[in-house]
Design a protein that fits this description.
The complex is a heterodimer of chains A (289) and B (94). Chain A is 30% helix and 16% strand. Chain A is α+β, with helices and mostly antiparallel strands and 289 residues long. The chains are: A alpha+beta (289), B alpha+beta (94). Chains A and B meet through helix 4, helix 7 and helix 10 of A and strand 2 of B.
């Protein structure tokens, strides 16, 4: 992710750059028009074709000799596209990064442009049949999504002030949903999701097909060997299967290659054994997103 | 050679033109652990582009299907056919 920090971060993390949330930037890039077109087709994203291929059986398609590599190259190019003729209906330029609750709260409290709304997660509905109002959207995206009334929760306040948005995000994080922040499209930031594996479209494409729709976070979990009591409560929280309990040494270990630094495991630990450390401070993981 | 899993839905039973509206049912979505299946609107034109009406279920992530057959068993319309093949292991980056 560092390349996006360098390009768009203005000296820091990309998602800490206030300008990327602003209406000024959104207007400059005509993002409103892009978002209308994108959300017109969001639910049909996986059945639309790229280079003649839709996502049905994507895993098999990407295994095909030569064609599989071309397909992967084309998809990656579209996911990260910053070109003027990128296609909104394919959600070109839409990708994000996992982040811990604290960073997400900072965004909602200080950087996200109002109005802030919460609406049903489209992936959770399409893949699980469950209507879960966990997607927190803001800026010009709010107005776009409101028109699609099926996303708007009934009988529940969906227009949130900053405090309410923070509260919602915190509840979702404590449940174990992974917080993620999104370029939609790059460089405009207008969404913080609370993802569940394997339903989340972004996490699916990264975890199962290694497409860079979602990047690993700026942090990693560190297990405090002295504090860990081996209660195993954290293990079931991890959506990336990064935590495992070893009976031989009666403590939990973390697979740093798998850890995305979401930090939800910390909510389960009652012994202060799990802490997030910056990715850059771990020599073998620095720069690996 | 990888044997591909084949999953077909009979849309005359499950679908907007069928006997059961999948938006009401959703049973197969609940039981599929790897979430292979997708409830989605069709690519056809919808009268209101903001509120599509024609929804069907299809299998999308075929390579994740492990052949448990729970979807086939649970479907009240017997609309699903599964011929299990090889499921591809997770491809993870390091």
């Amino acid at each position: 992710m560092c390349k996006y920090c360098l390009q768009h971060g203005d000296g820091g993390k990309w998602y800490d750059n206030a300008r990327l949330y602003s209406n000024e930037l959104a207007d400059e890039y005509n993002m409103g028009e892009y978002l209308e077109e994108q959300w017109r087709g969001m639910e049909t994203l996986f059945i639309r074709k790229i280079l003649g291929f839709n996502s049905i059986g994507l895993g098999y398609k990407m295994q095909m000799p030569i064609i599989g590599k071309v397909l992967r190259w084309a998809v990656e190019r579209q996911i990260h596209s910053e070109s003027k003729n990128r296609k909104a209906i394919r959600a070109d330029g839409h990708f994000g990064q996992v982040l811990p609750m604290e960073d997400a709260i900072h965004i909602l409290g200080n950087l996200a442009a109002e109005p802030i709304i919460k609406n049903y997660c489209i992936c959770r509905y399409m893949q699980r049949g469950v209507k879960d109002a966990v997607c927190i959207n803001f800026g010009q995206l709010s107005g776009v999504i409101e028109k699609h009334t099926r996303y708007i929760p009934k009988d529940v306040k969906y227009k949130l002030d900053r405090e309410e948005a923070i509260q919602a995000l915190q509840e979702q994080n404590e449940k174990g949903y992974v917080a993620s922040v999104w370029f939609q499209p790059v460089p405009y930031i207008n969404a913080i999701c609370s993802c569940e594996t394997p339903e989340c479209g972004g996490l699916r494409l990264r975890n199962d097909f290694n497409l860079e729709t979602v990047y690993k976070g700026e942090y990693l979990i560190d297990v405090d060997i002295d504090n860990c009591q081996g209660c195993k409560s954290c293990v079931s929280m991890c959506q990336f299967s990064a935590l495992r309990y070893l009976p031989s040494i009666d403590r939990v270990i973390v697979d740093l290659d798998k850890c995305f630094g979401c930090g939800v495991c910390r909510h389960a630990c009652e012994h202060d054994a799990l802490n997030l450390v910056p990715r850059e401070s771990v020599p073998g993981q620095a720069g690996k997103y | 050679m990888v044997k591909k899993t084949k999953i077909t839905f009979d849309h005359s039973k499950c679908g907007f033109a069928g006997t059961t509206d999948p938006r009401e049912c959703r049973e197969c979505l609940r039981v599929c652990d790897p979430a292979v299946l997708l409830l989605h609107p069709t690519l056809e034109d919808h009268p209101d582009p903001h509120n599509p009406e024609k929804w069907i279920v299809d299998a999308i992530w075929l390579s994740k299907c492990t052949g448990c057959m729970r979807c086939v068993e649970i479907c009240p319309e017997n609309a699903i056919e599964v011929v299990p093949g090889d499921s591809l292991a997770y491809i993870r980056s390091t």
